[in-house]
C-alpha cells in the first residue's frame, strides 16, 4: 500500500543560504505566516565558508534520544493557545461523524436513582430539587427540609442525610473551604441554604478501593440568617474559600457568607455581607407601579483573574472584581442588548435576534486563554466568547479590575443537515472547513442549559418536550488544530460533535474527572493528544429524573482502535483506506504514534456491560501493527548536496516512524521527565522526611507501558526498517539511501537504549523508596546530598552524572544492608536484576570486595586471616578496576592504609589508573610536550587523581617506618618489611606515566636524592625530559649517570648543559666542560672498551669538549680583559651580558670583541681554536702583539720592554706551542730576534758593540723553555746568518753568532743529559761541527774573545765525540 509523501514541517537550524534541490510543490518547507528573511545576495566569502562542513560533535545514543524527546515535548507544549483558533470572527466548523467508530464521546453507563430517594419523592411533593457533586461521585436531593447524598456509582449506596434543621431547603452547593479554618480532614464545605438560614456543613472525603468516595458530614456550628431572601444560587472560590450567594427572587444583589475559626470583637464566626447594596433598604411603596424584579440566576468565579461573573434572569452579565479577600467591587455591566449589538457588528443572524436570551455563562481562566475570559450560551445554542480588558490590555491577572468586555468570537450551532467532514473511503482530498458559516441553524433552538469544561468541552441541553431533553456535545479536534492544513492561515476552531437524546429531563451536569490542563499556560494548554496516556480521560455525569448518565470522552487512540476494527473487518482495502484517512487528517507521525499506542494496549472501549476495557482483540492489534510497520515512512537526507561519504547523522531526517515512537514515549513520560526524583520534608518532630515527587504507582504505570513498548519493538525489530540489522543495508539501491538507513538506525537505536534506561531508572527509584530513603540520603556527603535533591528523572535516565549519583545511592543501599547484617550477594543480585544499569555485574564484585575489607577489619589486619581477606578484596577490586569510582577508590585506599596494607593500596591505585586510560593517551600527551588544550590531558588528570592517593600511601609508609626500628633483635620489623613491599611495587611499576608523576612529586617534596637511589630506566627517561626544562634537572641527570659509573653519558649531559640556552654564567659552563673532559677521559671497562666502537665515540666527545673548553676559556679571558678595559665603561654591562652567558662562536669572539678591542693575544688564541692557517695574518698579529706589549711596558713603566714582550710570548706560547701554524718557530723567532736587535737592547754611544752587557739570550730562552727543539732554533739562526739582512747585517751579525753558539751549547748540554750521542745523532753532530767551523772561519767578533774560545771549545768536544 503506497501513500503520497507526508508533508514535512520546516526543519529548524537549516542553512538559509544553502542551495537545495527543487522540491515537489506538494512539500511545504516554510510556513506562510512565518517571518521571511530578506532575500539578499550573499557575499562571496560567506558563500565559500557555508560549503565547509562544521566540526561535528558526536552525540551518544542517550544524548540523541534525549534531544529527540526534549524537542518533541517542546513541540507539544507549543500547541496553539485558545486565542489562536477562537479569534475575532464567527465560525460553525463541526465534524459530526456518522460512523460511530469516529464518535468523539460515548455513553458509558446509566445509574438509577436509589429506591429510598424515590420513596421520599412520593411522600413529599412540596419542595424538592436534585443535583450532582460529580467531583466526589455523589448526587444529592432535598425534599423540603431534608437533604440526602449518595454515591451514584455504587449499586447499593449508603444514603447520607442532613435533617437537623426545620426549614425548607432552597439551594445546595459544594465548595472548597478557606485554608486553616477547619481541620485538614475537611476537604469541602456543603453550603445548605434554607428559607431562614445558610448552614456550613463540613465534608470529609476519602477515596477507598476501586475509586469509591467515602463521604462524611460534620457539624461546624456555622450558620447565618437569610430571612427575607430566597437564595437562588451559590458559588465558591476554590482559591480563597470565599462563598457568594444571590437573591433568586427580588434583587440582583450579591452576598457573601463570611466565616472564621473563632469569634472576634466585631465579627461573628459566620455572617453575611451584601457587597452591592451597602445601606439599609426601605420598604416598597404599595401604590407604586410594579416592575419585574431582576435577580441572579447563575454565578461563576474565575480565580485566575479574581473575577466573579453573574447572570441575571434578563440576561444581564455583571463582572465583579475580587480585589482583596474581603471586597467585591462591581467592574462591568453588560446588558443583553449591548451584547447582541456587539454581535451584530460581526454578523446578523436570526439566532441572535430579539427572542434570544443568555441561559448560561462559563468562565475561561487565564491559564487557558490570555484574551478570552467568558463564554455565554444563548437559548438558540450560540456560544459567544467575550474578552475582558483593562485599558488597552487584555485582562489577565487579579491585580486590577477590568474596564470593558467585548465580543471576540461567535460559534454557531452545527448545520441542520451536517455534512460530515469525514471523506469517503476511496477519496484522498484534504479536509476543508465549510466555505460558508451556517448562521441560521436551529438545531439547538430551545437550549435550556449548557456547560463548558476545559479545554473546550461543550455540553448543550435543548428541550425535546415536556418529558425529554436533547444533548449536544462537542470538543476541539486537537489533532487537526495542531496540524492545520493551510499554514498560511490561523488554525480553525474545528470541533467534533456528538448528539444524544436523553429520554428524560436534565437536572444537573458535572465533570467527574479533574479539569483538563496540559500545561499551566495558554500555549499548549488544550493539547489533548499530549495527555492521552498521562491523565484521566474526561468523564461527565448528567443527572436526569431517571438517574445519572455518564459520558466519556474518546481519545484519538480509542477512535483509531474502533475505526481499524470496523474497517479491517472489510479486508485490507478497508483498512488501508482508514489508515490513509488518519494520515491525511492527523499526519503520518501522529498516526504511527496512535497505532503504536494501540499495539501497546493503550486503546480502550466500552464493553457491553458498560465497563471501560482495554482493547485486546488480536485482529485490532494486528491491524495497528500493520499500520505501524507498513506506513512508517522512510528517512530522508535533509541536504541532498551533502557529501554522502561523510558520517553526519544530523543531516538525516528520521522517518515518521521515528517521530511516532518519540511522540509515544514523550507522552508516556511527560509528567515525570523534568520532575525531581525526591522532595524533602520534615516529620512532626523535626526529622528529615523524604518522599517521592511522583507517586510510586504512577511510576509503575509508566514503567509498565514502556515495557510493553520495549517488548513490541524487540519482537518486531526484523520488520522495522532501522532495527532490522545491517543486512538491510545491502538492499539500499543507492549510497544516499544507505546513508539514510544508517541515520534511521542510529535514531531508532538511540530510542531503544533510552527505553531501557528509563525502565531501569524507574526500577531504581522504586528500589530506593523501598528502603529508608532518609537514612540513605543522610549517609551521603554534602555534595552528593545536594545532587540528590536536584536530581531529575531526565538526569537519571540520560545524564552520566545522574547515573553516577544513582550508583552512589546503590552503594549506600548496599552498605546500609551490610551494616544490618544482610548478605551482600543477595542484595546486589536483587539490585542487578531490577536495575542492571545502576547495579551491574561489576558493582556486585565491588560490593563483595568491600565486604572482604570489612571482614578483614573485623578479623584484624595483622592476622593471617585478615591478610587473606585483604588479598581477596584486592583481587576482586583489580578485576573491576575499570569500573571503580573515585569515591570507592579513595575509601578503599584509606582502609588499606589504616590496615597497613600499603602494597595493596599502591597496586590497586596503579591498576585503576591504567584501566582509566587503556589507550595510554596520557603518555602520548606527555611525550608530545603536554600541549594545552588537548583532549588527552583529561586522561592524564584522571590518572593523576589515582597517583595522588599513592603519594598519601608513601607518606603513611614513611611515617610508619620512621616511628619503628628497621630491625628488632636481628629480625626485620613488620614496618620495614611492609615499607620494602610498598617500594617494590613502586619501583617495579612499568607505568611510565606513574613514574613521571612520582618523580615530579619527589622533586616537589625536595627529595631529589631519592631519584639517585632508584635503578630504573624510567628515571633516565624522566630526567632527560626534565633536563629540557631547567639546568638543575640536567645536573641531577649527570649526577645519576656518575652515581652508576656511566661517565660517558654524564659527560654528554655536561656537554649539553654547557651548550644549552639556559641562563648560566660562563664560569658554570666552563665548569661543566671541565667535568665533561674529566668524565670523558675516565674509562671503567678496561681493554675491551678500548677496542669497542664506544672508544671512538669517547674520543670524539673528548675532542669536542676540549675544543669547546678552549673557546670558552678564550671567551673568559676576553671577558676578564673587558671588565678592566676603560674603553668599555659606557657599554660594559651590555658587553658583559653578551659574553658572560652562552659560549659564542669563535667568529663572533674575533670579529665582535678580540679584533675590535685590539686583544692580539686573544686573536692568536682564536686562530688556534679556529684552526686558522693564513700565515700573513698570523705573522701580522704576532708582530702587533710584540709591538703592543713593548708599548704597554713603556707607557706603564713596567721595566724593560723586552721583559714584557718575553712574558707575553711565554704565556701565549704555552697555549699555542702545539700548533705549527700558529706557533711557527722560524717566523716567530725571526720576529723576536729582529725586534730584539732593533729595540730590545740599545747600545749606548761610545760603548763597544760586542760588549756582552748589551747582549741577551731571552728570546732563545723563551723557545727553549717552551721546549722548542734546538735544531729548529739553530736552523732559523743559520738562515738569518746567511741572509745578512738588517737589522742583523754587517757587524750586527755578531748577535747571530753569539745566539748560534749559545744555542749549540744548550743543545750539547741537553743531549749529554739524555743520551751518550751528542745532539741526538751523529748526523746532527756533524752538522753542528760544520756550523762551528764556518763561524770560526768567518769570525766577526774580536779575536781571542770569550765567544771565540767557547766556539772552539765546543768544536773540539764535538770532534772528540765524533772520533
From TrEMBL:
The keyword Nucleus is assigned to this record: yes
Organism: Lophium mytilinum
Membrane topology: Peripheral membrane protein
Nucleoporin Nup133/Nup155-like N-terminal domain sequence ranges: 103-548
Region span, Disordered: 1-46, 405-432
Span of domain Nucleoporin Nup133/Nup155-like C-terminal: 655-1342
Major subcellular location class: nucleus
Signal peptide per UniProt: none
Subcellular location, record wording: Nucleus membrane; Nucleus, Nuclear pore complex
Family assignment from sequence similarity: Belongs to the non-repetitive/WGA-negative nucleoporin family.
Protein name: Nucleoporin-domain-containing protein
GO molecular function: structural constituent of nuclear pore
GO biological process, one term: protein localization to nuclear inner membrane
Keyword Transport attributed: yes
GO terms for cellular component: nuclear membrane; nuclear pore inner ring
Record InterPro entries: Nucleoporin_Nup133/Nup155_C, Nucleoporin_Nup133/Nup155_N, Nucleoporin_Nup155, Nucleoporin_Nup155_C_1, Nucleoporin_Nup155_C_2, Nucleoporin_Nup155_C_3
PANTHER family: NUCLEAR PORE COMPLEX PROTEIN NUP155 (PTHR10350:SF6)
Composition-biased stretches (Polar residues): 28-44, 419-432
Keywords linked to the UniProt accession: Membrane, mRNA transport, Nuclear pore complex, Nucleus, Protein transport, Translocation, Transport
Amino acid at each position: 500500500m503506497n501513500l503520497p509523501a507526508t508533508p514535512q514541517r520546516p526543519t529548524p537550524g537549516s542553512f538559509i543560504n544553502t542551495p537545495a534541490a527543487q522540491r515537489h510543490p506538494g512539500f511545504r518547507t516554510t510556513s506562510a505566516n512565518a517571518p521571511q528573511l530578506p532575500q539578499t545576495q550573499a557575499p562571496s566569502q560567506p558563500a565559500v565558508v557555508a560549503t565547509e562542513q562544521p566540526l561535528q560533535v558526536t552525540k551518544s545514543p542517550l544524548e540523541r534520544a534525549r534531544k529527540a524527546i526534549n524537542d518533541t515535548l517542546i513541540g507539544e507544549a507549543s500547541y496553539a493557545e485558545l486565542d489562536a483558533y477562537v479569534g475575532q470572527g464567527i465560525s460553525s466548523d463541526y465534524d459530526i461523524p456518522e460512523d460511530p467508530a469516529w464518535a468523539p464521546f460515548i455513553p458509558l453507563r446509566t445509574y438509577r436513582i436509589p429506591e429510598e430517594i424515590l420513596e421520599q419523592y412520593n411522600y413529599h411533593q412540596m419542595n424538592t430539587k436534585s443535583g450532582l457533586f460529580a467531583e466526589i461521585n455523589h448526587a444529592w436531593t432535598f425534599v423540603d427540609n431534608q437533604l440526602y447524598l449518595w454515591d451514584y456509582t455504587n449499586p447499593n449506596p449508603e444514603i447520607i442525610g442532613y435533617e437537623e434543621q426545620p426549614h425548607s431547603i432552597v439551594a445546595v452547593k459544594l465548595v472548597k473551604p478557606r485554608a486553616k479554618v477547619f481541620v485538614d480532614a475537611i476537604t469541602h464545605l456543603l453550603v445548605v441554604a434554607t428559607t431562614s438560614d445558610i448552614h456550613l456543613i463540613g465534608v470529609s472525603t476519602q477515596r477507598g478501593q476501586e475509586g469509591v468516595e467515602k463521604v462524611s458530614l460534620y457539624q461546624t456550628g456555622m450558620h447565618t440568617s437569610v430571612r427575607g431572601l430566597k437564595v437562588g444560587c451559590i458559588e465558591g472560590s476554590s482559591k480563597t474559600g470565599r462563598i457568594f450567594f444571590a437573591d433568586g427572587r427580588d434583587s440582583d444583589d450579591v452576598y457573601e457568607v463570611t466565616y472564621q475559626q473563632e469569634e472576634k470583637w466585631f465579627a461573628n464566626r459566620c455572617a453575611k455581607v451584601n457587597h452591592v447594596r451597602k445601606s439599609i433598604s426601605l420598604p416598597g411603596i404599595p401604590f407604586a407601579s410594579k416592575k419585574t424584579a431582576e435577580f441572579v440566576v447563575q454565578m461563576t468565579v474565575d480565580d485566575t483573574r479574581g473575577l466573579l461573573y453573574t447572570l441575571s434572569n434578563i440576561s444581564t452579565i455583571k463582572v465583579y472584581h475580587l480585589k482583596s479577600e474581603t471586597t467585591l467591587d462591581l467592574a462591568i455591566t453588560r446588558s443583553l442588548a449591548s451584547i447582541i449589538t456587539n454581535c451584530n457588528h460581526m454578523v446578523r443572524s436570526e439566532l441572535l435576534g430579539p427572542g434570544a436570551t443568555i441561559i448560561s455563562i462559563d468562565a475561561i481562566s487565564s491559564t487557558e486563554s490570555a484574551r478570552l475570559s467568558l463564554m455565554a450560551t444563548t437559548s438558540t445554542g450560540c456560544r459567544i466568547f467575550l474578552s475582558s480588558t483593562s485599558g488597552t490590555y487584555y485582562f489577565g491577572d487579579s491585580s486590577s479590575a477590568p474596564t470593558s468586555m467585548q465580543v471576540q468570537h461567535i460559534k454557531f450551532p452545527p448545520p441542520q443537515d451536517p455534512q460530515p467532514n469525514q471523506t469517503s473511503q476511496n477519496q484522498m482530498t484534504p479536509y476543508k472547513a465549510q466555505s460558508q458559516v451556517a448562521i441560521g441553524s436551529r438545531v439547538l433552538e430551545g437550549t435550556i442549559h449548557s456547560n463548558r469544561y476545559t479545554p473546550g468541552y461543550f455540553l448543550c441541553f435543548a428541550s425535546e418536550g415536556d418529558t425529554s431533553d436533547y444533548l449536544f456535545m462537542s470538543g476541539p479536534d486537537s489533532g487537526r488544530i495542531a496540524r492545520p492544513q493551510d499554514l498560511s492561515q490561523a488554525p480553525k476552531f474545528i470541533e467534533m460533535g456528538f448528539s444524544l437524546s436523553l429520554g428524560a429531563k436534565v437536572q444537573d451536569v458535572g465533570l467527574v474527572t479533574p479539569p483538563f490542563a496540559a500545561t499551566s499556560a495558554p500555549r499548549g494548554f488544550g493539547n489533548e493528544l499530549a495527555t492521552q496516556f498521562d491523565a484521566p480521560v474526561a468523564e461527565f455525569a448528567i443527572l436526569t429524573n431517571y438517574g445519572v448518565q455518564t459520558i466519556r470522552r474518546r481519545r484519538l487512540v480509542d477512535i483509531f482502535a474502533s475505526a481499524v476494527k470496523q474497517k479491517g473487518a472489510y479486508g485490507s482495502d478497508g483498512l488501508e483506506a482508514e489508515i490513509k484517512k488518519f494520515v491525511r487528517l492527523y499526519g503520518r507521525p501522529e498516526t504511527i504514534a496512535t497505532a503504536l499506542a494501540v499495539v501497546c494496549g493503550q486503546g480502550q472501549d466500552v464493553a457491553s456491560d458498560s465497563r471501560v476495557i482495554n482493547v485486546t482483540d488480536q485482529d485490532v492489534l494486528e491491524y495497528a501493527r500493520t499500520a505501524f510497520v507498513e506506513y512508517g515512512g522512510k528517512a530522508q537526507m535533509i541536504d541532498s548536496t551533502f557529501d554522502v561519504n561523510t558520517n553526519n547523522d544530523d543531516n538525516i531526517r528520521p522517518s515518521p516512524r521515528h517521530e511516532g515512537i518519540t511522540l509515544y514515549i514523550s507522552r508516556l513520560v511527560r509528567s515525570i521527565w523534568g520532575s525531581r526524583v525526591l522532595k524533602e520534608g520534615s516529620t512532626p518532630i523535626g526529622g528529615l522526611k523524604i518522599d517521592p515527587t511522583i507517586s510510586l504507582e504512577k511510576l509503575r504505570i509508566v514503567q509498565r507501558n514502556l515495557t510493553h513498548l520495549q517488548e513490541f519493538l524487540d519482537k518486531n525489530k526484523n520488520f522495522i526498517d532501522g532495527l532490522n540489522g545491517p543486512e538491510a543495508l545491502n538492499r539500499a539501491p543507492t549510497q544516499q539511501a544507505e546513508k539514510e538507513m544508517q541515520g534511521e538506525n542510529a535514531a531508532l537505536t538511540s530510542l531503544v537504549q533510552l527505553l531501557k534506561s528509563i525502565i531501569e531508572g524507574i526500577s531504581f527509584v522504586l528500589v530506593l523508596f523501598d528502603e529508608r530513603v532518609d537514612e540513605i540520603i543522610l549517609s551521603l556527603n554534602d555534595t552528593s546530598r545536594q545532587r540528590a535533591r536536584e536530581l531529575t528523572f531526565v538526569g537519571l535516565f540520560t545524564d552520566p552524572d545522574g547515573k553516577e549519583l544513582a550508583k552512589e545511592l546503590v552503594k549506600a543501599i548496599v552498605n546500609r544492608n551490610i551494616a544490618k547484617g544482610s548478605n551482600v550477594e543477595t542484595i546486589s543480585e536483587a539490585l542487578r536484576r531490577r536495575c542492571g544499569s545502576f547495579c551491574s555485574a561489576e558493582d556486585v564484585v565491588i560490593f563483595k570486595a568491600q565486604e572482604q575489607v570489612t571482614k578483614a577489619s573485623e578479623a584484624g589486619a595483622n592476622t593471617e586471616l585478615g591478610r587473606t581477606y585483604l588479598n581477596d578484596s584486592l583481587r576482586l577490586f583489580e578485576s573491576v578496576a575499570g569500573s571503580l569510582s573515585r569515591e570507592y577508590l579513595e575509601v578503599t585506599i584509606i582502609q588499606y592504609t589504616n590496615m597497613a596494607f600499603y602494597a595493596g593500596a599502591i597496586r590497586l591505585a596503579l591498576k585503576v589508573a591504567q584501566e582509566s586510560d587503556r589507550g595510554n593517551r596520557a603518555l602520548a600527551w606527555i611525550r608530545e610536550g603536554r600541549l594545552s588544550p588537548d583532549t588527552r590531558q583529561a586522561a592524564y588528570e584522571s590518572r593523576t587523581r589515582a597517583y595522588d592517593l599513592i603519594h598519601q600511601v608513601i607518606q603513611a609508609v614513611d611515617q610508619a617506618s620512621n616511628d619503628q626500628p628497621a630491625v628488632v633483635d636481628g629480625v626485620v620489623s613488620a614496618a620495614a618489611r611492609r615499607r620494602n613491599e610498598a617500594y617494590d611495587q613502586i619501583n617495579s611499576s612499568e607505568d611510565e606515566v606513574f613514574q613521571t608523576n612520582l618523580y615530579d612529586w619527589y622533586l616537589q617534596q625536595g627529595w631529589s636524592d631519592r631519584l639517585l637511589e632508584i635503578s630504573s630506566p624510567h628515571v633516565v627517561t624522566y630526567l632527560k625530559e626534565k633536563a629540557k626544562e631547567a639546568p638543575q634537572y640536567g645536573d641531577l641527570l649527570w649526577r645519576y649517570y656518575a652515581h652508576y659509573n656511566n661517565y660517558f653519558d654524564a659527560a654528554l649531559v655536561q656537554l649539553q648543559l654547557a651548550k644549552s640556552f639556559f641562563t648560566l654564567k660562563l664560569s658554570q659552563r666552563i665548569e661543566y666542560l671541565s667535568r665533561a673532559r674529566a668524565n670523558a677521559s675516565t674509562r671503567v671497562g678496561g681493554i675491551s672498551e678500548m677496542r669497542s666502537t664506544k672508544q671512538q665515540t669517547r674520543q670524539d666527545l673528548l675532542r669536542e669538549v676540549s675544543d669547546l673548553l678552549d673557546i670558552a676559556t678564550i671567551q673568559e679571558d676576553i671577558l676578564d680583559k673587558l671588565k678592566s678595559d676603560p674603553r668599555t665603561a659606557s657599554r660594559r654591562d651590555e658587553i658583559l651580558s653578551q659574553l658572560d652567558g652562552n659560549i659564542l662562536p669563535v667568529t663572533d669572539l674575533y670579529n665582535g670583541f678580540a679584533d675590535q678591542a685590539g686583544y692580539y693575544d686573544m686573536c692568536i688564541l682564536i686562530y688556534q681554536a679556529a684552526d686558522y692557517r693564513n700565515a700573513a695574518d698570523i705573522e701580522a698579529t704576532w708582530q702587533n702583539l710584540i709591538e703592543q706589549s713593548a708599548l704597554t711596558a713603556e707607557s706603564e713603566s713596567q721595566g724593560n720592554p723586552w721583559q714584557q714582550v718575553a712574558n707575553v710570548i711565554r704565556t701565549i706560547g704555552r697555549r699555542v706551542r702545539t700548533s705549527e701554524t700558529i706557533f711557527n718557530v722560524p717566523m716567530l723567532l725571526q720576529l723576536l730576534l729582529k725586534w730584539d736587535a732593533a729595540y730590545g737592547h740599545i747600545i749606548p754611544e761610545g760603548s763597544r758593540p760586542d760588549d756582552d752587557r748589551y747582549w741577551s739570550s731571552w728570546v732563545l730562552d723563551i723557545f727553549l723553555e717552551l721546549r722548542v727543539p734546538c735544531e729548529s732554533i739553530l736552523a732559523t739562526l743559520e738562515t738569518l746568518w746567511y741572509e745578512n739582512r738588517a737589522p742583523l747585517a754587517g757587524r750586527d751579525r755578531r748577535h747571530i753568532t753569539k745566539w748560534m753558539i749559545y744555542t749549540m751549547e744548550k743543545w750539547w748540554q741537553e743531549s749529554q743529559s739524555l743520551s751518550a750521542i751528542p745532539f741526538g745523532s751523529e748526523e746532527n753532530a756533524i752538522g753542528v761541527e760544520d756550523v762551528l767551523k764556518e763561524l770560526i772561519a768567518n769570525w766577526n767578533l774580536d779575536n781571542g774573545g770569550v765567544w771565540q774560545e767557547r766556539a772552539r771549545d765546543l768544536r773540539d768536544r764535538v770532534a772528540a765525540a765524533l772520533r
